[in-house]
Amino acid sequence: MRNSEIKLAVGDGGTITGTLREPADEPHAALVIHPATATPERFYAGFASFLADNGLATVTYDYRGTGRSGSPRAHRALGMRDWMEGDVPAVAAWTAERFPALPQLAIGHSLGGHALSLGNGTASLAAFALLASHAGTVNAIPDPMERFRVRMVLHLLGPALGAALGYVPARRLGLGEDIPAAAMTQWGGWARLPRYFFDDPSMRASERAATVTQPVLALGFSDDPWATPGQIDMLTGQLVAASVERRTYSPADGGVTKIGHHGFLRSGVRDTLWPEVLGWLNKQAASVAR
């Protein structure tokens, strides 16, 4: 496997830094992993290496204003919508240009899956998988203590810190990497709405989701405190023109004690759940290559 750093400029300003992992032999498909909010590129390294070792040229990256793609304070005005409509298409276009003869695939984790579900970065895709992507309204979180914690972060602490600092120290709040202030503001606003961004008229989310026609694999996990089956269905139910396959895995399926919202990316399920997704991706790539 060969690793190389990539850098690409985004049209409205800023630079994305990422990593391209290429198989030792010729790849049979190219894939981008679009990350979750406040989840650094390095968190996807193990899974991306697994995919590359199995023949997929795989790209991982940090959204602008996070991780290696610039400081959150310097990008304080960047919102989630900027990532979805700017960063995701930019990385998808770079990958398609780098591997023009290969089937194009993608995996979207949480926010990354939101972007794909609204048709961002999907023009060249043969298929894509959603990983714990859901309509993330706070009131739908089943556990009352977790619901209270998330509400405090999204609606009180996060916005207050963002206004004071220009960024949100999400790491100290137990939400992963630090993010720009505007991203937290937009996240908190959508999280108040019963159907998340589908209730934001400016997003035209239902209209855009209806344009997606690729095969979609939507993965959920039985112990995920946020992406419950109902909230995943609320998202995938908008993909009215796509063929959607829903799968829900339990920790027992993965041979581990916990998966949650991020555990699929950890090495504990390398031999159990990762091959399941790889098989689906290979099937989609083969259907295009024929």
TrEMBL record:
UniProt-recorded name of the protein: Alpha/beta fold hydrolase
Gene Ontology molecular-function annotations: hydrolase activity
Stretch forming the signal peptide: none
UniProt keyword annotations, A-Z: Hydrolase
Domain annotation Serine aminopeptidase S33: ranges: 26-133
Naturally occurring in which organism (per UniProt): Actinoplanes aureus
Pfam families assigned: Hydrolase_4
Lineage: superkingdom: Bacteria
Higher taxonomy: Bacteria, Bacillati, Actinomycetota, Actinomycetes, Micromonosporales
